[in-house]
Design goal:
Layout: E1 7-10, H1 20-35, E2 39-44, H2 54-67, E3 73-76, H3 81-94, E4 97-104, E5 110-116, E6 122-127, E7 131-136, E8 144-148, E9 151-152, H4 154-164, E10 169-173, H5 180-190, E11 196-200, E12 203-204, H6 213-216, H7 222-227, H8 232-240, H9 255-261, E13 272-273, H10 276-289, H11 292-298, H12 312-318, H13 325-328, H14 355-370, H15 377-391, H16 393-405, H17 413-420, H18 422-434
Parallel strand pairs: 1-2, 2-3, 10-11, 12-13
Antiparallel strand pairs: 4-5, 5-8, 6-7, 8-9
Helix pairs in contact: 1-9, 3-4, 4-5, 8-10, 14-15, 14-16, 14-18, 15-16, 15-17, 16-17, 17-18
Length: 436
């Protein structure tokens, strides 16, 4: 029976963190499956017993769940060894493979390995992204497919598992293209149907080098961006646009919109740039769309304890990722702390020549605010705006803002007044007058 249902898979090795390029591979495989009402499989390729760790497996599963890429089928290669073993035996029996008595250092100082008998032929790969690729497999020689009857290596295991799981489309990174000729030869040897291939372009750093752990460290991992306080929806939206373009001006896509819009035919052959500024921009767009309750819940672990609810709209407006929240309290939002010592000469607006005038403006502000019953930012602005327009906005509002914050950079004085409250606002204004 021919399988007509689209089945894709994401098949990471649990030997480290999830690479941001892996996120894109998983996303594209997921999108393609879902837009064809198909199946998305997660297969952990843990045949490397030395490097594979259970904690990395758990991390991969948790990362994909956090992103919202829910798998329909789950498998671990290490639990499928009996299936791999049966195919190795068949290949030995049919003459497609043979036991080679030799010292094999790279396979762990073994006296024998199992090699595939290469027919030395040309294979043609019809790739959905790269088109027709023809490879002469003669140079590959008789390559190793198992360390022993019980220990398949990657090429054998991946072919058997794709076949047994009914995978119809192999969507994976460009670096796997060189593996494909070997895998096609094995497919032909075991009588497996050939999946359709789509090899995705590399994810590149801004200097157009390959985004790699060796060169770029932890910044290539999903964990790094999770810890920085990026939203999963924003990360998916951003990585979708690395090497793919919808052909329209739209740049913000929900996952459901990506399922409808994504087209493998529009994935470019050349590498796509990972631009952090663009990621920040996308993440900011998602923060802007959040309700205040959603924002508060999502940013909770990045917030100081016992934070005033009045600060939340200001924080939401200013940050592009949650890791920017803490530094705000050391800079623009430091006014909520006790007022620092400052130079009272700085109270003077740059076009104001005499501090006497500044003192007069501050006293008028105090007089006007002393009778205010409503201290919302809108009310404070309504009370002071006519004075600012009459005497000059800078002349009036700069000394007020500086007196309230003690900083060159801070929110506008109306916002600060509302957050500090009437008593503290008047106290700080009086402190400024007393020291001029």
């Amino acid at each position: 029976m021919i399988n007509t249902k689209v089945i894709t898979r994401f098949a990471p090795s649990p030997t480290g963190f999830l690479h941001i390029g892996g996120v894109r591979t998983a996303l594209f495989a997921y999108l393609y499956a879902k837009q064809h009402d198909g199946i998305f499989a997660l297969r952990i390729e843990d045949t490397d017993k030395v490097r594979s760790k259970e904690e990395w497996t758990d991390g991969l599963i948790n990362d994909l769940a956090w992103l919202g890429l829910k798998h329909d089928v789950f498998a671990k290669q290490s639990e499928r060894v009996d299936i791999h073993k049966s195919y190795i035996k068949k290949m030995l029996d049919s003459g497609h493979a043979y036991i080679s008595k030799e010292k094999v250092v790279e396979e762990g100082q073994r006296d024998e390995v199992i090699r595939f008998k290469n027919p030395n032929k040309k294979v043609t790969i019809n790739d959905l992204i790269r088109g027709e690729v023809i490879v002469d497999t003669t140079d590959l020689g008789d390559f190793v497919i198992a360390r022993s009857i019980d220990e398949p290596v990657y090429h054998l295991a991946v072919v058997v598992d794709d076949f047994e799981m009914g995978v119809t489309h192999v969507i994976r990174a460009e670096e796997h293209l060189s593996n494909t000729p070997r895998q096609i030869l094995i497919q032909e040897a075991i009588g497996a149907s050939r999946p359709i291939y789509a090899h995705l372009p590399l994810v590149l750093a801004e200097d157009r080098s390959k985004l790699s752990k060796r060169k770029h460290g932890e910044t290539v991992s999903l964990t790094y961006y999770k810890d920085k306080g990026y939203l999963p929806e924003a990360i998916l939206n951003f990585v979708a646009l690395i090497g793919w373009n919808p052909g329209t001006d739209q740049e913000i896509f929900s996952l459901s919109e990506l399922i409808k819009t994504f087209d493998l035919a529009k994935v470019q052959k050349g590498g796509g740039i990972f631009n952090v500024e663009k990621l920040d921009w996308v993440n900011k767009k998602y923060i802007e769309k959040m309700s205040m309750d959603e924002f508060t819940a999502a940013a909770k672990s990045f917030m100081p304890e016992n934070i005033s609810a009045k600060l939340l709209p200001l924080i939401k407006e200013k940050v592009s990722k949650f890791s920017e929240i803490k530094p705000l309290f050391e800079t623009e939002l430091s006014f909520i702390n006790p007022l620092p010592a400052y130079s009272f000469e700085n109270l003077k607006w740059r076009q104001e020549k005499d501090l006497v005038n500044t003192k007069s403006y501050l006293q008028t502000i105090i007089d006007k605010l002393s009778t205010a019953s409503d201290f919302s930012k809108e009310s404070v602005k309504a009370i002071l705006w006519p004075l600012a327009e009459e005497k000059g906005k800078g002349n009036v509002l700069w000394p007020m803002r500086y007196a309230l914050s003690g900083k060159d950079k801070s929110p506008d004085p109306f916002i600060i007044s509302e957050i500090l409250g009437k008593e503290e606002t008047l106290k700080r204004l009086k402190h400024a007058i007393q020291n001029i």
